[in-house]
Amino acid sequence: VYVGALQNIFSKSSKYSLFDPCKEMVYIPLDEDMKVKSKAAIDVVCNPLGKSGGALIQQFMILTFGSLANSTPYLGGILLVIVLSWIGAARSLDSQFSPLAKQELEKEKLLKEKVKEPVVKPSQENKEGLVGKEATTKENGFLGSSASENSTNGSALKEKLAPESKSSSDAPTT
């Protein structure tokens, strides 16, 4: 009884933690129309066929060999074949799914990069010709290499900021 209970616990827990999430992952790369059709086909046709097929095989083996104990080695062999084909199907899905998932990640990265790129408008310039981040660093009195390197003015910006940096460095620190 304990062995049967443990087997039932392990089979249900592996089904809900491994099989069901993998089954749902198959639908991810499909478009909405294909998701609905394939999910309906699997849930309505394939799942009941699988369960009734397993029961049919077990009944046939019991009738052929006389008892469940006599048919157990053969049922184990059938189970091994089914598990190996299941692993093969999972590997096949991985080889098909991974490239699609990588493409989706690439698209998402490109979209995020496009969104993060700042748009500089001429109206954002201040009276000294500084734009965006450079203007805030000048106003705050902080000088960074990014302000001078990213500037469109180049060395002219360095010359404008140089006198201020000398005066700020002469100030006593607390």
UniProtKB/TrEMBL annotation:
Residues 143-155, 165-174 have a biased composition (Polar residues). The chain crosses the membrane at residues 74-93. The keyword Membrane applies. Residues 113-174 are annotated as: Disordered. GO terms for cellular component: chloroplast membrane. GO terms for molecular function: ATP binding; ATP:ADP antiporter activity. Residues 113-137 have a biased composition (Basic and acidic residues). The keyword Transport applies. Pfam families: TLC. Keywords: ATP-binding, Chloroplast, Membrane, Nucleotide-binding, Plastid, Transmembrane, Transmembrane helix, Transport. It is a multi-pass membrane protein. It is found in: Membrane; Plastid, Chloroplast membrane. InterPro entries: ADP_ATP_car_bac_type. Belongs to the ADP/ATP translocase tlc family. PANTHER family: ADP,ATP CARRIER PROTEIN 1, CHLOROPLASTIC, PTHR31187. This is ADP,ATP carrier protein. It comes from Elaeis guineensis var. tenera. The lineage of its organism: Eukaryota, Viridiplantae, Streptophyta, Embryophyta, Tracheophyta.
